[in-house]
Amino acid sequence: MTRIYNVLPLALSVVALSAAFIAPGPKAPKRPKTITYAVDVAPIINRSCVACHHDGAVAPFSLVGYDNAKKWANNIASITQTRVMPPWKAVHGFGEFKDDRQLSDQEIALLQKWSDDGAPRGDRKKEPKSPAFTSAWPLGEPDLVLKPDKPFHVDAEGDDVYRNFVMKNTFDHPVWVKAMAIRPGDPKVVHHVITFIDSYGAAKKLEDANHDGQEGYSTSGGGVGFMPSGTLGGWAPGNATHETPEGIAYLIKPGSTLVIQVHYHKTGKPEDDLTQCGLYFAKEPITKQMQLNWIFNFGINIPAGDKAHEESRVRTVPEDVTIYSAMPHMHLLGRSMKAQVEFADGTVKPLVWVNDWDFRWQISYVLKEPMHVPKGSKIRVEAVYDNSAGNPLNPNRPPKTVTWGEQTTDEMFLLIVGYTADHQDIAAAQS
Ligand code: HEC
Protein backbone atom coordinates (compact mmCIF):
# COMPACT_ATOMS: atom_id res chain seq x y z
CA MET A 1 0.00 0.00 0.00
CA THR A 2 1.34 3.40 -0.82
CA ARG A 3 1.81 5.82 1.97
CA ILE A 4 1.13 9.36 0.96
CA TYR A 5 0.59 11.85 3.65
CA ASN A 6 -0.72 15.32 3.35
CA VAL A 7 2.64 16.87 3.93
CA LEU A 8 2.32 20.59 3.51
CA PRO A 9 -0.05 21.61 6.32
CA LEU A 10 1.71 19.15 8.56
CA ALA A 11 5.09 20.60 7.81
CA LEU A 12 3.72 24.04 8.61
CA SER A 13 2.41 22.94 11.98
CA VAL A 14 5.77 21.35 12.75
CA VAL A 15 7.43 24.68 12.12
CA ALA A 16 4.88 26.46 14.28
CA LEU A 17 5.32 24.01 17.11
CA SER A 18 9.07 23.94 17.14
CA ALA A 19 9.13 27.72 16.92
CA ALA A 20 7.07 27.81 20.09
CA PHE A 21 9.79 25.85 21.76
CA ILE A 22 12.89 27.40 20.30
CA ALA A 23 11.95 30.99 21.05
CA PRO A 24 12.36 31.07 24.82
CA GLY A 25 10.99 34.59 25.26
CA PRO A 26 12.55 37.21 27.51
CA LYS A 27 11.38 35.69 30.77
CA ALA A 28 12.32 32.05 30.14
CA PRO A 29 13.31 30.19 33.28
CA LYS A 30 17.08 29.89 33.65
CA ARG A 31 17.18 26.11 33.83
CA PRO A 32 14.44 24.54 31.79
CA LYS A 33 13.27 21.22 33.15
CA THR A 34 14.97 18.23 31.56
CA ILE A 35 12.49 16.03 29.77
CA THR A 36 13.23 12.42 30.65
CA TYR A 37 11.99 9.05 29.54
CA ALA A 38 11.35 7.95 33.10
CA VAL A 39 9.07 10.81 34.08
CA ASP A 40 7.68 12.38 30.91
CA VAL A 41 8.00 10.12 27.90
CA ALA A 42 7.28 6.58 29.13
CA PRO A 43 3.72 7.40 30.24
CA ILE A 44 2.93 8.83 26.79
CA ILE A 45 4.40 5.91 24.88
CA ASN A 46 2.82 3.34 27.17
CA ARG A 47 -0.57 4.96 26.79
CA SER A 48 -0.55 5.76 23.09
CA CYS A 49 1.94 3.55 21.26
CA VAL A 50 2.86 0.18 22.73
CA ALA A 51 -0.55 -1.44 22.14
CA CYS A 52 0.54 -1.71 18.50
CA HIS A 53 4.30 -1.32 18.96
CA HIS A 54 5.30 -4.47 20.80
CA ASP A 55 6.80 -7.68 19.51
CA GLY A 56 4.35 -9.61 17.39
CA ALA A 57 1.81 -6.77 17.11
CA VAL A 58 0.72 -4.88 13.97
CA ALA A 59 3.46 -2.24 14.01
CA PRO A 60 6.85 -3.14 12.52
CA PHE A 61 8.94 -2.49 15.67
CA SER A 62 8.62 -2.40 19.44
CA LEU A 63 8.56 0.78 21.51
CA VAL A 64 8.43 -1.08 24.82
CA GLY A 65 11.10 0.04 27.30
CA TYR A 66 13.74 2.75 27.26
CA ASP A 67 16.18 1.14 24.81
CA ASN A 68 13.57 0.84 22.07
CA ALA A 69 12.20 4.31 22.67
CA LYS A 70 15.69 5.84 22.54
CA LYS A 71 16.54 4.02 19.35
CA TRP A 72 13.44 5.50 17.71
CA ALA A 73 13.49 8.90 19.47
CA ASN A 74 13.99 10.89 16.26
CA ASN A 75 11.25 9.11 14.39
CA ILE A 76 8.93 9.31 17.37
CA ALA A 77 9.39 13.08 17.41
CA SER A 78 8.84 13.57 13.69
CA ILE A 79 5.95 11.17 13.20
CA THR A 80 3.99 12.57 16.12
CA GLN A 81 4.53 16.13 14.81
CA THR A 82 2.85 15.12 11.58
CA ARG A 83 0.11 13.35 13.58
CA VAL A 84 0.52 10.26 11.41
CA MET A 85 1.07 8.38 14.68
CA PRO A 86 -0.65 7.41 16.81
CA PRO A 87 -3.44 6.57 14.39
CA TRP A 88 -6.49 8.28 15.84
CA LYS A 89 -8.69 10.27 13.56
CA ALA A 90 -11.64 11.39 15.67
CA VAL A 91 -11.78 15.18 15.99
CA HIS A 92 -10.83 16.16 19.51
CA GLY A 93 -13.77 17.52 21.49
CA PHE A 94 -16.43 16.03 19.21
CA GLY A 95 -17.52 13.18 21.45
CA GLU A 96 -15.38 11.43 24.04
CA PHE A 97 -13.98 7.96 23.52
CA LYS A 98 -12.47 5.08 25.41
CA ASP A 99 -8.70 4.70 25.19
CA ASP A 100 -8.27 7.89 23.21
CA ARG A 101 -4.64 7.60 22.12
CA GLN A 102 -4.42 11.10 20.70
CA LEU A 103 -1.52 13.28 21.87
CA SER A 104 -1.94 16.88 22.91
CA ASP A 105 0.15 19.61 21.26
CA GLN A 106 2.04 19.84 24.52
CA GLU A 107 2.89 16.14 24.54
CA ILE A 108 4.06 16.31 20.95
CA ALA A 109 6.32 19.26 21.73
CA LEU A 110 7.65 17.40 24.73
CA LEU A 111 8.60 14.36 22.63
CA GLN A 112 10.42 16.67 20.23
CA LYS A 113 12.38 18.31 23.01
CA TRP A 114 13.26 14.94 24.52
CA SER A 115 14.62 13.77 21.16
CA ASP A 116 16.53 17.05 20.63
CA ASP A 117 18.17 16.67 24.04
CA GLY A 118 19.49 13.21 23.16
CA ALA A 119 16.63 11.18 24.66
CA PRO A 120 17.80 11.10 28.30
CA ARG A 121 16.55 8.31 30.51
CA GLY A 122 16.29 10.11 33.85
CA ASP A 123 15.70 8.38 37.15
CA ARG A 124 15.03 4.71 36.51
CA LYS A 125 13.28 4.36 39.83
CA LYS A 126 10.60 6.72 38.58
CA GLU A 127 10.00 4.74 35.38
CA PRO A 128 6.51 3.27 35.14
CA LYS A 129 6.39 -0.46 34.49
CA SER A 130 6.07 -1.24 30.80
CA PRO A 131 2.81 -2.99 30.02
CA ALA A 132 3.37 -6.73 29.64
CA PHE A 133 2.13 -8.47 26.54
CA THR A 134 1.97 -12.09 27.54
CA SER A 135 -0.36 -13.25 24.79
CA ALA A 136 -0.35 -12.64 21.07
CA TRP A 137 -4.06 -11.96 21.53
CA PRO A 138 -5.20 -8.52 22.70
CA LEU A 139 -7.29 -9.75 25.64
CA GLY A 140 -5.29 -12.88 26.47
CA GLU A 141 -6.01 -16.38 25.21
CA PRO A 142 -9.51 -16.51 23.69
CA ASP A 143 -12.03 -19.15 24.77
CA LEU A 144 -12.21 -20.35 21.19
CA VAL A 145 -9.92 -19.78 18.22
CA LEU A 146 -11.38 -20.26 14.75
CA LYS A 147 -9.25 -20.39 11.62
CA PRO A 148 -9.14 -21.89 8.15
CA ASP A 149 -7.33 -25.23 7.84
CA LYS A 150 -4.73 -23.95 5.41
CA PRO A 151 -3.13 -20.60 4.56
CA PHE A 152 -4.74 -18.75 1.68
CA HIS A 153 -2.52 -17.90 -1.25
CA VAL A 154 -2.80 -14.33 -2.49
CA ASP A 155 -1.43 -13.60 -5.95
CA ALA A 156 1.05 -10.80 -6.52
CA GLU A 157 -1.19 -8.62 -8.66
CA GLY A 158 -4.75 -7.97 -9.66
CA ASP A 159 -7.99 -6.84 -8.09
CA ASP A 160 -8.65 -7.04 -4.38
CA VAL A 161 -9.99 -10.40 -3.20
CA TYR A 162 -12.87 -10.93 -0.77
CA ARG A 163 -12.40 -14.45 0.58
CA ASN A 164 -15.03 -16.00 2.78
CA PHE A 165 -13.72 -18.72 5.09
CA VAL A 166 -16.47 -20.93 6.48
CA MET A 167 -15.63 -22.14 9.96
CA LYS A 168 -16.11 -25.84 10.60
CA ASN A 169 -17.76 -25.80 13.99
CA THR A 170 -21.46 -25.21 14.28
CA PHE A 171 -22.70 -23.94 17.61
CA ASP A 172 -25.45 -26.12 19.08
CA HIS A 173 -26.48 -23.72 21.86
CA PRO A 174 -26.76 -19.93 22.08
CA VAL A 175 -23.29 -18.45 22.48
CA TRP A 176 -22.83 -15.04 24.06
CA VAL A 177 -19.67 -13.33 22.88
CA LYS A 178 -18.08 -10.50 24.87
CA ALA A 179 -15.32 -9.79 22.39
CA MET A 180 -14.03 -10.91 19.04
CA ALA A 181 -10.36 -10.52 18.16
CA ILE A 182 -8.69 -10.99 14.81
CA ARG A 183 -5.07 -11.90 14.23
CA PRO A 184 -4.13 -11.38 10.60
CA GLY A 185 -1.58 -13.95 9.44
CA ASP A 186 0.10 -11.56 7.01
CA PRO A 187 -0.75 -7.94 7.88
CA LYS A 188 0.72 -6.78 4.54
CA VAL A 189 -2.19 -8.20 2.57
CA VAL A 190 -5.04 -8.16 5.10
CA HIS A 191 -6.92 -4.93 4.50
CA HIS A 192 -9.80 -5.69 6.82
CA VAL A 193 -11.86 -8.56 8.19
CA ILE A 194 -15.59 -8.89 8.85
CA THR A 195 -17.19 -11.81 10.65
CA PHE A 196 -20.65 -12.90 9.53
CA ILE A 197 -23.04 -15.30 11.21
CA ASP A 198 -24.76 -17.87 8.99
CA SER A 199 -27.69 -19.68 10.64
CA TYR A 200 -28.88 -21.56 7.55
CA GLY A 201 -25.86 -23.44 6.19
CA ALA A 202 -25.80 -21.20 3.13
CA ALA A 203 -22.08 -20.43 3.30
CA LYS A 204 -21.15 -24.11 3.41
CA LYS A 205 -23.09 -24.64 0.16
CA LEU A 206 -21.23 -21.76 -1.48
CA GLU A 207 -17.93 -23.21 -0.35
CA ASP A 208 -18.84 -26.66 -1.65
CA ALA A 209 -19.71 -25.18 -5.02
CA ASN A 210 -16.32 -23.52 -5.28
CA HIS A 211 -13.62 -25.38 -7.16
CA ASP A 212 -10.71 -22.97 -7.35
CA GLY A 213 -8.57 -25.29 -5.22
CA GLN A 214 -8.42 -23.10 -2.13
CA GLU A 215 -10.42 -23.04 1.07
CA GLY A 216 -13.50 -20.83 1.33
CA TYR A 217 -15.02 -18.97 -1.60
CA SER A 218 -14.56 -15.55 -3.13
CA THR A 219 -17.22 -12.96 -3.72
CA SER A 220 -16.84 -10.11 -6.10
CA GLY A 221 -18.33 -6.95 -4.78
CA GLY A 222 -17.61 -7.83 -1.17
CA GLY A 223 -20.96 -9.28 -0.15
CA VAL A 224 -20.86 -12.75 1.38
CA GLY A 225 -23.20 -14.32 -1.19
CA PHE A 226 -25.99 -15.00 1.32
CA MET A 227 -28.09 -12.98 3.73
CA PRO A 228 -26.13 -13.09 6.97
CA SER A 229 -28.07 -13.56 10.20
CA GLY A 230 -25.73 -11.21 12.00
CA THR A 231 -22.17 -10.15 12.54
CA LEU A 232 -19.68 -9.97 15.37
CA GLY A 233 -18.20 -6.90 13.80
CA GLY A 234 -15.02 -6.36 11.95
CA TRP A 235 -11.38 -5.66 12.32
CA ALA A 236 -8.91 -3.43 10.56
CA PRO A 237 -5.47 -2.19 11.56
CA GLY A 238 -5.74 0.23 14.41
CA ASN A 239 -8.89 -1.27 15.81
CA ALA A 240 -8.57 -2.07 19.49
CA THR A 241 -10.48 -5.06 20.85
CA HIS A 242 -13.07 -4.18 23.48
CA GLU A 243 -15.24 -6.33 25.67
CA THR A 244 -18.92 -5.45 25.64
CA PRO A 245 -20.14 -3.85 28.91
CA GLU A 246 -21.40 -5.95 31.84
CA GLY A 247 -24.57 -7.90 31.01
CA ILE A 248 -24.30 -7.20 27.27
CA ALA A 249 -22.92 -9.51 24.57
CA TYR A 250 -23.13 -10.44 20.91
CA LEU A 251 -25.29 -13.49 20.22
CA ILE A 252 -24.52 -16.49 18.04
CA LYS A 253 -27.71 -18.53 17.71
CA PRO A 254 -27.69 -22.34 17.84
CA GLY A 255 -27.09 -23.99 14.49
CA SER A 256 -24.98 -21.07 13.28
CA THR A 257 -21.59 -21.03 11.64
CA LEU A 258 -19.16 -18.15 11.48
CA VAL A 259 -17.87 -16.88 8.20
CA ILE A 260 -14.66 -14.90 8.34
CA GLN A 261 -14.41 -12.59 5.38
CA VAL A 262 -10.93 -11.30 4.67
CA HIS A 263 -10.45 -8.42 2.26
CA TYR A 264 -7.05 -8.94 0.62
CA HIS A 265 -5.14 -6.14 -1.00
CA LYS A 266 -2.34 -7.32 -3.30
CA THR A 267 1.20 -6.16 -2.68
CA GLY A 268 3.06 -6.94 -5.88
CA LYS A 269 4.47 -10.10 -4.31
CA PRO A 270 2.68 -13.42 -3.77
CA GLU A 271 1.78 -13.86 -0.09
CA ASP A 272 0.20 -16.53 2.10
CA ASP A 273 -2.14 -15.61 4.91
CA LEU A 274 -3.80 -17.51 7.71
CA THR A 275 -6.06 -15.14 9.63
CA GLN A 276 -7.42 -16.31 12.97
CA CYS A 277 -10.49 -15.24 14.88
CA GLY A 278 -10.61 -15.48 18.67
CA LEU A 279 -13.84 -15.43 20.64
CA TYR A 280 -14.23 -14.46 24.28
CA PHE A 281 -17.40 -15.87 25.82
CA ALA A 282 -19.61 -14.25 28.44
CA LYS A 283 -19.14 -15.58 31.96
CA GLU A 284 -21.91 -13.40 33.47
CA PRO A 285 -25.70 -13.49 32.89
CA ILE A 286 -26.63 -11.51 29.78
CA THR A 287 -29.62 -9.20 29.66
CA LYS A 288 -29.06 -7.42 26.37
CA GLN A 289 -27.75 -8.26 22.93
CA MET A 290 -25.15 -5.99 21.36
CA GLN A 291 -26.28 -5.25 17.81
CA LEU A 292 -24.80 -3.39 14.88
CA ASN A 293 -26.73 -0.97 12.73
CA TRP A 294 -25.21 -0.19 9.35
CA ILE A 295 -26.06 3.27 8.12
CA PHE A 296 -25.09 3.33 4.48
CA ASN A 297 -25.76 5.34 1.39
CA PHE A 298 -25.57 3.15 -1.72
CA GLY A 299 -26.52 6.12 -3.86
CA ILE A 300 -23.29 8.06 -3.58
CA ASN A 301 -22.18 9.61 -6.83
CA ILE A 302 -18.93 11.51 -6.66
CA PRO A 303 -18.27 13.60 -9.78
CA ALA A 304 -14.82 13.55 -11.34
CA GLY A 305 -12.77 16.56 -10.29
CA ASP A 306 -14.96 17.61 -7.34
CA LYS A 307 -12.70 18.55 -4.47
CA ALA A 308 -15.31 18.58 -1.73
CA HIS A 309 -18.30 16.51 -2.74
CA GLU A 310 -20.86 16.10 0.02
CA GLU A 311 -23.11 13.12 0.69
CA SER A 312 -25.40 12.54 3.63
CA ARG A 313 -27.81 10.11 5.19
CA VAL A 314 -30.30 10.46 8.01
CA ARG A 315 -31.61 7.44 9.90
CA THR A 316 -34.57 7.70 12.24
CA VAL A 317 -34.08 5.56 15.31
CA PRO A 318 -37.03 3.09 15.42
CA GLU A 319 -36.94 2.24 19.16
CA ASP A 320 -35.27 3.45 22.36
CA VAL A 321 -31.63 2.44 22.14
CA THR A 322 -28.30 2.93 23.83
CA ILE A 323 -25.35 3.58 21.53
CA TYR A 324 -21.87 2.31 22.43
CA SER A 325 -19.70 2.79 19.37
CA ALA A 326 -19.46 4.26 15.91
CA MET A 327 -17.16 3.26 13.09
CA PRO A 328 -16.97 5.34 9.91
CA HIS A 329 -15.99 3.53 6.74
CA MET A 330 -14.97 5.03 3.41
CA HIS A 331 -12.24 4.28 0.88
CA LEU A 332 -9.59 6.45 -0.77
CA LEU A 333 -11.56 9.56 -1.73
CA GLY A 334 -13.24 9.96 1.64
CA ARG A 335 -11.96 12.97 3.57
CA SER A 336 -14.47 13.50 6.34
CA MET A 337 -17.37 11.74 8.02
CA LYS A 338 -19.38 13.39 10.72
CA ALA A 339 -22.18 11.73 12.67
CA GLN A 340 -24.43 13.32 15.24
CA VAL A 341 -27.67 12.53 16.95
CA GLU A 342 -30.58 14.96 16.71
CA PHE A 343 -33.08 14.61 19.55
CA ALA A 344 -36.78 15.48 19.39
CA ASP A 345 -36.26 18.54 21.63
CA GLY A 346 -33.74 19.99 19.18
CA THR A 347 -30.65 19.01 21.13
CA VAL A 348 -27.79 17.72 19.02
CA LYS A 349 -25.10 15.43 20.43
CA PRO A 350 -21.86 14.49 18.69
CA LEU A 351 -21.29 10.83 17.84
CA VAL A 352 -18.02 10.89 15.94
CA TRP A 353 -16.28 13.12 13.42
CA VAL A 354 -13.27 12.09 11.40
CA ASN A 355 -12.07 15.08 9.39
CA ASP A 356 -8.80 13.66 8.08
CA TRP A 357 -9.95 10.25 6.91
CA ASP A 358 -7.24 7.69 6.25
CA PHE A 359 -8.53 4.39 4.89
CA ARG A 360 -5.68 2.52 6.56
CA TRP A 361 -7.06 3.27 10.00
CA GLN A 362 -10.57 1.93 10.27
CA ILE A 363 -11.18 2.58 13.91
CA SER A 364 -14.33 1.76 15.81
CA TYR A 365 -14.67 4.64 18.25
CA VAL A 366 -16.11 3.42 21.54
CA LEU A 367 -18.00 6.12 23.44
CA LYS A 368 -16.69 6.90 26.90
CA GLU A 369 -20.29 7.18 28.11
CA PRO A 370 -22.90 5.13 26.25
CA MET A 371 -25.54 7.44 24.73
CA HIS A 372 -29.21 6.95 25.40
CA VAL A 373 -31.20 7.73 22.25
CA PRO A 374 -35.02 7.69 22.36
CA LYS A 375 -37.19 6.44 19.53
CA GLY A 376 -37.73 9.03 16.81
CA SER A 377 -34.34 10.68 17.23
CA LYS A 378 -32.28 11.06 14.07
CA ILE A 379 -28.73 10.01 13.35
CA ARG A 380 -27.35 12.37 10.75
CA VAL A 381 -24.24 11.27 8.87
CA GLU A 382 -22.41 13.63 6.52
CA ALA A 383 -19.40 12.74 4.41
CA VAL A 384 -17.06 14.71 2.18
CA TYR A 385 -15.08 13.19 -0.69
CA ASP A 386 -12.15 14.64 -2.63
CA ASN A 387 -12.30 13.33 -6.19
CA SER A 388 -9.91 15.95 -7.58
CA ALA A 389 -6.55 15.27 -9.21
CA GLY A 390 -5.06 17.10 -6.22
CA ASN A 391 -5.96 14.22 -3.89
CA PRO A 392 -2.74 12.18 -3.80
CA LEU A 393 -4.73 9.04 -2.97
CA ASN A 394 -7.12 9.36 -5.91
CA PRO A 395 -6.81 5.99 -7.65
CA ASN A 396 -8.05 7.37 -10.98
CA ARG A 397 -5.74 9.51 -13.09
CA PRO A 398 -7.40 11.53 -14.48
CA PRO A 399 -10.25 11.42 -11.94
CA LYS A 400 -13.48 9.73 -13.01
CA THR A 401 -16.93 9.61 -11.48
CA VAL A 402 -16.96 7.16 -8.59
CA THR A 403 -19.94 5.35 -7.09
CA TRP A 404 -20.60 2.75 -4.37
CA GLY A 405 -18.65 -0.46 -4.74
CA GLU A 406 -16.45 -2.92 -2.94
CA GLN A 407 -13.17 -2.45 -4.76
CA THR A 408 -10.74 -0.10 -3.05
CA THR A 409 -11.08 2.10 -6.13
CA ASP A 410 -14.85 2.38 -5.60
CA GLU A 411 -16.25 4.33 -2.68
CA MET A 412 -18.37 3.69 0.35
CA PHE A 413 -20.48 5.65 2.78
CA LEU A 414 -20.98 3.58 5.87
CA LEU A 415 -21.28 4.17 9.59
CA ILE A 416 -21.51 1.08 11.78
CA VAL A 417 -23.23 1.83 15.07
CA GLY A 418 -23.04 -0.57 18.04
CA TYR A 419 -26.19 -0.44 20.16
CA THR A 420 -28.56 -2.27 22.48
CA ALA A 421 -32.37 -1.99 22.54
CA ASP A 422 -33.47 -0.47 25.85
CA HIS A 423 -36.61 -2.59 26.22
CA GLN A 424 -34.76 -5.85 25.80
CA ASP A 425 -34.40 -8.07 28.88
CA ILE A 426 -33.19 -11.48 27.85
CA ALA A 427 -33.05 -12.92 31.36
CA ALA A 428 -36.71 -11.98 31.97
CA ALA A 429 -37.77 -13.30 28.57
CA GLN A 430 -36.21 -16.67 29.36
CA SER A 431 -37.64 -17.09 32.86
C1 HEC B 1 -3.04 1.33 16.12
C2 HEC B 1 -1.72 0.85 16.05
C3 HEC B 1 -0.58 1.83 16.26
C4 HEC B 1 -0.42 2.74 17.26
C5 HEC B 1 -1.34 2.99 18.46
C6 HEC B 1 0.83 3.42 17.01
N1 HEC B 1 1.40 2.92 15.88
FE1 HEC B 1 3.14 3.55 15.04
N2 HEC B 1 2.86 2.27 13.49
C7 HEC B 1 1.83 1.37 13.38
C8 HEC B 1 1.97 0.64 12.12
C9 HEC B 1 1.03 -0.45 11.62
C10 HEC B 1 3.11 1.15 11.51
C11 HEC B 1 3.66 0.79 10.13
C12 HEC B 1 2.76 1.60 9.23
C13 HEC B 1 3.29 2.01 7.99
O1 HEC B 1 4.26 1.46 7.51
O2 HEC B 1 2.66 2.94 7.48
C14 HEC B 1 3.66 2.17 12.39
C15 HEC B 1 4.78 2.93 12.09
C16 HEC B 1 5.38 3.80 12.97
C17 HEC B 1 6.61 4.50 12.73
C18 HEC B 1 7.44 4.39 11.48
C19 HEC B 1 6.82 5.26 10.44
C20 HEC B 1 7.51 5.25 9.13
O3 HEC B 1 7.31 6.20 8.41
O4 HEC B 1 8.18 4.27 8.81
C21 HEC B 1 6.87 5.27 13.83
C22 HEC B 1 8.08 6.16 14.08
C23 HEC B 1 5.78 5.06 14.75
N3 HEC B 1 4.89 4.17 14.20
C24 HEC B 1 5.67 5.67 15.97
C25 HEC B 1 4.56 5.58 16.78
C26 HEC B 1 4.40 6.33 18.02
C27 HEC B 1 5.42 7.29 18.58
C28 HEC B 1 3.18 5.99 18.52
C29 HEC B 1 2.50 6.53 19.76
C30 HEC B 1 2.53 7.94 19.95
C31 HEC B 1 2.58 5.01 17.61
N4 HEC B 1 3.44 4.80 16.58
C32 HEC B 1 1.33 4.42 17.79
C33 HEC B 1 0.80 1.17 14.27
C34 HEC B 1 0.58 1.95 15.38
End-to-end distance, in Å?
53 Å
Rg over CA atoms, rounded to whole Å, is 23 Å
In CATH's first tier, which class of the largest domain applies? Answer: Mainly Beta
Averaged pLDDT, please? 87
Structural class: alpha+beta
Bound molecules: heme C
Count of folded domains = 3
CATH topology of the largest domain: Jelly Rolls
Estimate the global geometry from the Cα principal axes. globular
Helical segment count: 7
Overview of this structure, please?
With 431 residues, the chain is an alpha+beta fold. The protein folds into three domains: 7-126, no CATH class; 144-282, Jelly Rolls; 291-430, Jelly Rolls. Helices cover 16% and strands 30% of the residues. The protein contains seven helices and 22 strands. The chain has a five-stranded mixed beta sheet with strand order 1-11-4-8-12, with no helix packed on it. The chain has a five-stranded antiparallel beta sheet with strand order 6-3-9-5-7. Strand 17 and strand 18 (348-354) form a beta hairpin. It is globular, with a radius of gyration of 23 Å. It starts with 6 loop residues before the first helix and ends with a helix. Mean pLDDT is 87; it is low at 1-25. The structure holds heme C (HEC). Residues 3, 48-49, 51-53, 58-60, 72, 75-76, 79-80, 85-87, 101, 103, 237-238 line the site of heme C.
